[in-house]
Write a structure and sequence with these properties.
The complex is a heterodimer. Chain A is an alpha/beta fold. Chain A contains 14 helices and 14 strands. In chain A, the strands form three sheets. In chain A, strands 3, 4, 7, 8, 9, 10, 11, 12, 13 and 14 form a ten-stranded mixed β-sheet that branches. The longest helix of chain A has 24 residues, at 4-27. Chain A starts with a helix and ends with a helix. By secondary structure, chain B is an all-alpha fold. Helix content of chain B is 76%, strand content 0%. Chain B has 13 helices and no strands. In chain B, α3 packs across α7 and α8 packs antiparallel against α9. Classes of the chains: A alpha/beta, B mainly alpha. The interface between A and B is large, with 38 and 35 residues.
Chain lengths: 362, 286
Amino acid sequence: MISRRSILRTAGAAASLSLFAPAIARAKSQEVNIMTYAGHVPDAFKAKFEAETGITLNIRIVADQGKQFNTMVTETSSPVTDICTVAAHRIPQFRGSDLLAPVDVSRLPGWSALNPIYSEADWLKADGDVWSVPVALGATGLGSNPDLVSEEDGSSWGSLFNEAFAGRVSYVVLDAISLAIAYQGNDITFNSYIDDRAKAQDVVNQARDFVIANKGILLKYTESSTEQQQLFINDEIDVGQISFGEAARLLNGEMPFRFRIPKEGTFGFVRSLGIARHAPNAEAAYTFLDAFLSEPEIGTQIARSSGSLPTFSGFADPMTEAEKAIFAFSDEDLKRIHFESPTASGLKYELIDVAVAEIKAS
Amino acid sequence: MNTQPARIALLAFPAFWILLLHLGPMLAMLRISFLESFPPLPGSAEVATLANYTAFFANDVYIVPMLRTLVFSFSATLLLLVLTYPLAFFLAKGVRAERKLTYLMILFAPFWVGEIIRIFSITVTFGNRGAVNWVLLNLGILERPLRMLYGYFSLSTGIIHLSALYMLMPIYAAIEKIPDNLLEAGRDLGAGPVSRFFDIILPLSREGVATGCALVFLANVGTYSVPALLGGPGTSMFSETIGTFFHTAGSQWPVGSAFSVLLLTASLTIAALMMLVIQRRKGRAR
């Protein structure tokens, strides 16, 4: 018979276990704790890797760099993360906060699978070290419903601020300032303002005031491109900013949808996997990265699962023609993508972060 | 028998709970609000400042949403009181004792799922492709979907849906405690339904009303997920502004903390005033 005392004893033991569970989880070396964006570690690869190595991949999905940075900083006293996903232009910030360890490329034979445009890029290197493994390319563009929005309107950021689409427009508030900066003809990368903080502030203020002045047109400020995707799917908006990864999933012909890199230009970024400075499972993290880079067709898998453009050579080769059409950027498109600058992005986001709060409060 | 150790042991857990999990984070927030930079970066020293507080008063862009939040929360609280009071009365006095549990379970059922799921259920119900528009379009009442999301309607619906029980339960408990024979005596002495309500039921349920109003007001002032998911650019609440400072990958936490302290102070003051007014009236009624 189960006595009250035995129930209490069992409950006490269970409570003690639950209190110490995180420590037990951290002590295991047969796991890798990864913070990454949806689809960047494809499910098929994860299952195969876990079956072959016995190492469990604990994946925490993140939606933006800010939250990921803050999470890692708050975990500094008791590190959990082994691998994080850093946008290339944020590498200096993560390094400066002692959150990243250099990557020993000699331990990654699969490194050559990466397109040299990315694997040899200057922004990956600092102080003689490589700081992360580039995985996918992202770019923000303009999504629209071709049945209701003309090709011309669907190719300009001006549509986000156009009275004709009032109540059928939305954008990610953090990105809205960059888009307004591009629309106003200013330098979206901030490279021109590195030595002129006053000018940079002026550019941000102009964009902030413009966004606030056109707030009445907007349906909703969103926090992520995934939310933008949902608004398109639910027929809440006709025009909206959306990243290529999320747009790719809407370009399958099931609903009227167009994606353009607007004529005013946009910002692009490269997402990369970095090893956390205080990774509790650094050895297992290297095992993961090596398997990841060595996996045949990992680029194709990433493209299909995340919708992002992978940084792997020949990723499109195994794709169908329809898939290739979605993932093909024209030369003109590519010219309009301005990559965030590792040297200027610190200044840019320092100013933009405050302006975002002001826009939201307005 | 010395019961002192047992008493200490019994109180230790609640004390630990309150100090560490309730007061602890608030004190941490208060401390951060006076720092120049947070989270701390390697090699940086902590510098104290009042700038995070002066930033609020220096720019009316922050004062307006704070006032909007307080006014909206107060209005939503009053609306919820009007909506839930009759329901609480019905449950306490209009339902047979053996059926009360069934009725309460029906009311509790939506609360068995998470808050975010309940918020999304409102999106699914009132969206352009939601249930309400689907019915109206198929009945031919509408030609185009009626926009119901991302404004004060969806925001209020979300707030009411999420905080209804906080108002309902204290009022229900207060009304249920009113002896039936008191109401019968009033009726026997010639008091009509209106007199019985204003002279007996309302004064005796005042404590429940006060508790419900304070709980709902405080919960509404601080809610983040409802305005973030159901509100629009014209309905921004102060909690969203505060959230922005914590999302960015910089050193804005102290500003967010200072604004949180200000919101907490303002909302606690209003809640205390509400309680005070009701307590005074109660005293006078005696």
